[in-house]
């Protein structure tokens, strides 16, 4: 293998939970970083962030921020991504966007590298990183889908506080302290107390009563799998876990899918770690999934209610594989295939 | 209505969480108590428990405990129920048993008063109170089943710590304190830390990989509904909630079931409280279900993956409706129908 090109990278939304994880992953996975620019809103500008022994200063994003950049990893929310996308593409950089802004755009590939890596090749400047809950499910069930197409998915999720950001995680801790001290919990980030409680995911509801998070699981899974009419339903629930999401997934196939075969497939599937110790009732748990790259999958069972059904259970780190790691994996795919369009002027002085 | 007979009642397992709730409910619902005897193991004997202004002393259960008793409310676990059932029945008393010991016994009615009240009439001395998770689901879905038979149920549960007893509830609090103080959580009641975590229900697994809790949902629902081949599958999960269980339930019917009709039916169903404020994303939550008699049901939606499917979400107090209240309701049914077999000697001095 030839020495990879090295890239000038910007992280847009560098001070958030996903931004911090992106920094860690670029270093950990030795992504060929030529230069790293940290961008954020004016509120976070000036913050100092360590990266590989250096200290980087967060800059406020502006019209010229992307002029000398090859690759932008964006995780600053949909409106920020929408506001800067055309500037990024015009500057000749590639944007891997963590927000939901472009996910369902027909021109934008929506990629889980373990599922549809080839989709990156069609990019026109923007590649979307799917919703966290969707990524975790896709990694776990696609290997089965490849062997026998999935007919229907019924999912119920158990989503941690950190899915709503670092402040939400802190809120659950503070509320827990309050309740343990006999005081009333104060909800700010979430509409209702989450400590020692749970509630249906509080994203906006559509007319059919599905929240945005649930519709992401439906629509994004269809797009990623390339099955526009895939039958998916979901109930998304926020639980008082700090980090990592869990999901109970019921799958239907056209004919029986043996548990033994499913287990065999998932024990070798990329991005999956089979966690099943039936003797000690030990299966995926969010505290163990936290910080891990792999999606932990277990409790693979024949569905008692359907001859062609399988049940499975997963826990996965939604900040890592559900967001930052998936984005960095996409960047790696792009780099390996020479799909990061390094502008002419950038080619000058490029190592490699 | 004639003045009801008054009964000599024993609570077996009086010092547990369900026992305490039984005492509250007998008082609150003005059940005609002639005399109340509190029974427990030797460990708890001698404890003093307040009841309607008096103080009752807990007695150690023995061979003669049931001689002067008409009705026994048992909530001391399966082995205790098995050990004393024949003594209770021989003494001429009726036993309403909260344990799983007799639930699947063909001679023993398994009763949810909102679902199969007539089953009490067939009792031969023992009536079983179903599993908490099963009761909550049955109350919520039976009204729909009456209008159009349910073909299939896919359930995922979110079960609170108190389902494993008061000590488990305390354990979650202690573990939460430890974690918030930067210390390691100590699991004792549960095999793994539950604070800020969750895991598949830790009851014993069968060969198909289903835990006991899940099989209770399958088998008990079939028996209560009187549909031996009802298709049910479930994933039961323990979550760091102190009290009240929640469930995401997917239902399939033979033909479409309109959301409007389901909502109308459930808004009037006995034991159900419809909790749906779509504007403010407000639905059933365990902290609000705690202490309530009704099962809170909401988020009734057309299943996006099946033309004949419905999705719903519930939270219910598993100690109250899921155990003690259901038992007291059974006692009320028995009393109203003269089905508490008051022994000859007991008839002497009976009021009413």
Protein topology:
The structure is a homodimer of 352-residue chains.
Chain A: E1 7-12, H1 17-28, E2 33-40, E3 48-51, E4 54-57, E5 59-60, E6 71-74, H2 78-90, E7 94-97, E8 126-128, H3 132-147, E9 150-158, H4 166-180, E10 199-200, H5 212-225, E11 231-235, E12 237-238, E13 245-253, H6 259-267, E14 272-274, H7 286-289, E15 295-302, E16 309-316, H8 320-336, H9 344-347
Parallel strand pairs in A: 1-2, 1-6, 2-5, 6-7, 7-8, 9-11, 14-15
Antiparallel strand pairs in A: 3-4, 9-13, 10-12, 13-16, 15-16
Helix pairs in contact in A: 1-8, 3-5, 3-8
Task: Explain what this protein looks like in three dimensions.
The structure is a homodimer of 352-residue chains. Chain A contains nine helices and 16 strands. Chain A is an alpha/beta fold and 352 residues long. Chain A folds into two domains: 138 residues, Rossmann fold, CATH 3.40.50; 186 residues, Dihydrodipicolinate Reductase, domain 2 (2-Layer Sandwich). In chain A, strand 6, helix 2 and strand 7 form a beta-alpha-beta unit. In chain A, helix 3 packs across helix 8. The longest helix of chain A has 17 residues. The termini of chain A are close together. In chain A, 57% of the residues are buried. The C terminus of chain A is likely disordered. Chains A and B meet through strand 9, helix 4, strand 10, strand 11 and strand 13 of A and strand 9, helix 4, strand 10, strand 11 and strand 13 of B.
């Amino acid at each position: 293998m030839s020495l990879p090109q090295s890239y000038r990278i910007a992280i847009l939304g560098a001070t958030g939970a996903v931004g911090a994880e992106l920094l860690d992953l670029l270093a950990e996975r030795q992504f060929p970083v030529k230069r790293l620019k940290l961008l954020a809103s004016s509120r976070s500008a000036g913050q100092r962030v360590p990266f590989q022994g250096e200290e980087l200063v967060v800059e406020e994003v502006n019209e010229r921020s992307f002029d000398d950049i090859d690759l932008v990893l964006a995780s600053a929310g949909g409106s920020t991504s929408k506001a800067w996308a055309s500037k990024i593409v015009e500057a000749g950089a590639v944007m891997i966007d963590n927000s939901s802004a472009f996910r369902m755009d027909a021109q934008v590939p929506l990629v889980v590298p373990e599922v549809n890596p080839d989709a990156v090749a069609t990019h026109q400047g923007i590649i979307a990183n799917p919703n966290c809950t969707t990524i975790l499910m896709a990694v776990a069930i696609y290997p089965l889908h490849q062997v026998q197409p999935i007919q229907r998915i019924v999912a119920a999720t158990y989503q941690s506080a950190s899915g709503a950001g670092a402040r939400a995680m802190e809120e659950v801790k503070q509320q827990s302290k309050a309740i343990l001290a006999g005081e009333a919990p104060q909800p700010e980030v979430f509409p209702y107390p989450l400590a020692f409680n749970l509630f249906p995911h509080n994203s906006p509801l559509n007319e059919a009563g599905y929240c945005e998070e649930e519709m992401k699981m439906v629509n994004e899974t269809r797009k990623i799998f390339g099955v526009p009419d895939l039958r998916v339903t979901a109930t998304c629930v926020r639980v008082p876990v700090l980090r990592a999401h869990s999901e109970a997934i019921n799958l239907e196939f056209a004919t029986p899918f043996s548990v033994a075969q499913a287990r065999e497939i998932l024990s070798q599937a990329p991005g999956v770690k089979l966690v099943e110790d039936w003797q000690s009732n030990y299966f995926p748990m969010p505290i163990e999934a936290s910080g891990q790259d792999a999606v932990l999958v277990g409790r693979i069972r024949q569905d008692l209610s359907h001859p062609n059904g399988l049940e499975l259970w997963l826990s996965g780190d939604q900040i890592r594989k559900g967001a930052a790691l998936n984005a960095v994996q996409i960047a790696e795919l792009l780099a390996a295939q020479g799909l990061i369009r390094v502008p002419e002027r950038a080619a000058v002085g490029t190592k490699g």
